[in-house]
Amino acid sequence: MFKKPNENFVIEGSAGARNLTGELKVGGAKNAALKVLASSLLFTDPIKLTNVPRIDDIKIMIDLLNDLGQNADFNDKTVRLGGKKITKTSLNEDLSHKLRASIVLTGPLLGRTGGVSFPHPGGCVIGQRPIDIFLNGFQAMGAKIHYDQNKYHLSAPNGLKGARIFFPQQSVTGTETLLMAAVLASGTTVLDNAALEPEVVSLGQFLINAGAKIHGLGTPTITVSGLGGPLAKKDHDYQTIPDRIEAGSYLILGALAGKDILISHCEPRHLTAVTETLKQMGLKMNIDHSSIRVNNEQPEFRAINLKTHEYPGFPTDLQAPMAVLLTQAYGQSFIFETIFENRLSYLDTLNRQGADTMLLDAHRALINGPRPLKGESLDSPDLRAGLAYIIAALVASGRSIVHNIHYIDRGYEKVEKKLQAVGANIKRVSCQG
Ligand code: EPU
User: What is the pTM (predicted TM-score) of this model?
Assistant: First the structure.
């Protein structure tokens, strides 16, 4: 089982100098691979995933699946798993507490076996993150639910039935979980106000290639004609799509600290909201079909109003890195975080670094810029704010130490190695105690 050493990043900042040069290669999308791994439970044959990022969230998901008897083999960037008898229907409690995405296992598991038990999922503390959408959806499909000893117990001994499900709020994992449950249900399921994220479309497309009957991916209404039994077609591989959040993070870093940065192996089509926002701020980029070059001639960025939004709007997962860029823009910027209610708390730390930000309420903040940042001791509160701290430390003057980097390792593969290769002064160091 996967265990984590205690480590920090030590970063020497460039004091605002834009000197990073070279290529930043984007890996496979965490939030796509996690769901396709979970979908292995829908199959009677093994499946193979390529371009899978070697990050901690993926390792935890693999541990969860192995605990259910899925026999996963993760070699380089390829995972082979499934095709085995599912040996239990209860999700491992410790692992589920570590990973919000553990919830997506409930859909295929309930659909395939007629039962699932699980604790409330863990993951980054960026808001309340309830699971009502999942429970209501399963109930509409005929599952009985009871809560006992800190666990939800769901059962549908005669199988799930197709239903019409309206999401009161668009939910990425909610859509994916109920989509997977619906594939094996009997009858037709309609998911209304479904999420449009590329990761949802990619999962759905993989299932279609394997024989599932799904219409309307990438639109708010997805219709699934249930097969009434498992997927069995052999030899279907899944190539993980590029991680748009990793690409966007490097793009923002390139804007702040790049002399000539090429972000390669990405999917710029999935980043339109980000590139359009950066253009509005004054950034010049060369956008190709699979790469973006940031060639920093422009010294001044303009302040903007930034509103996060479900895809294709500006992703909440890039809101914190973007805030660092806004500390260096001329004028007053406004951030409106519309998806999560606890995703601006990192701003206090940026203020300690010298930023001038003001929290208006749980969802809104002002940022005055530009302000020089200085080296600090930074405690990552979650994955994306942790990455934002790395970016802030890289452009600050002096030394910073980023703690709690286990959050960052959840979602960014070899981040320090990639950044060192473009000239960043960042080291991973072990810390005792
Ligand atoms: N919501 C409910 N009830 C539910 C489920 C969600 O009210 O039952 C609310 C949430 O509280 C939130 C909104 O719906 O206000 C949207 O949340 P969503 O369910 O879409 O988030 P998620 O599926 O838990 C995924 C990503 C997140 C990303 C969000 C939004 C995965 C594993 N996680 O989370 O990624 O921020 O969508 O795009 O796909 C990350 O990678 O760092 C990360 C947090």
Answer: 0.96
